[in-house]
Each structure stands twice: as C-alpha cells, then as structure tokens.
Known about the structure:
Elements: E1 6-9, E2 14-18, H1 31-42, E3 59-63, H2 66-80, H3 93-114, H4 130-151
Antiparallel strand pairs: 1-2, 2-3
Amino acid sequence: MSNISVFILSHKRYGYYIHGRSVHGHSDTNMEEMNLNLKREAENMCSQRGLQPNSDIQTFQISISGRVRTQFDRIHSNLTKNHGPSRFLQNSPTASEQSTKAYHTMNKFLSAFIDHAFKDMDYFVKDKLLLERCFRHIRGVAGQKNLASKTLIDERFLI
C-alpha cells in the first residue's frame, strides 16, 4: 500500500530497481479507504502493481547508460559537494535547503526516468535469457557449497 520505489546502484552502471508505486494514485489514506482499495485489488478492479502494463513484476536488475549515470552523478554531487552527506555538515539553513533541493531534484529525475520522460535516456525491460538463469543457478549452488566449506556452516542453513 506504499508509494515508495527503490533505486540501488551497486556498481557504476548496474544495480536494482524495486517498483513501489501505488496503483491507487496515493497511499496516504485511512483504514476504511485502504480496505476498499485492497478489496478492489483482490477483485481485479484496478491496474496491477507492475512497472509494465498488465504485469505484477516489481523487482528488476538494471543496467543504466553512461548518460543516465552522468546525470545521476551531477545531481548526487550536489548532495555531497561539501565532502560528505549533509547530516555531517553544519546545520545551517542554507545547507539544509540545498540538501532538500538536491533530494527533490534526484527524486524528480528518477521518477521522470522511470516514466520514460527522457527520450535520450530511455530504457527497456527484457526477460532474462535462459542461459543467464542457468548461470545464476550454477553460481548460487557453487557459491553456497564454497561458503559452507570455508565457514563450516551447514549448507541447509544457507539461503
């Protein structure tokens, strides 16, 4: 029922996206309206939660272009331009206002990116290839066995 999406870059141009946009347009509501919204969802009387139409898929591995990363870095530098996150800087109104403006700018940029607002920085969604799935499975199994042997943890406890 929330309206929160998460954009994580674990590497320079690779990461994860969790699509958390509410299908009801807003998530700040009372219990009566929340129950009504859940009932509508259960009866398929509203759109699905997925990023794409007629889809419930909300989690993605992402690979972004250099242009998207450059714009992301430009906005992000406004958050850290004084050599650290704003919470470590002096608590002046100017620093706080600059930080708030930069967070707002980043939010608008990422929202617009997800909404396909930038034709020169657009994206597409594709299914993983069978080969990618096989390699991931093999790596996962081999990784668990390797971890179990190095740490002496029983394989059954590794998820």
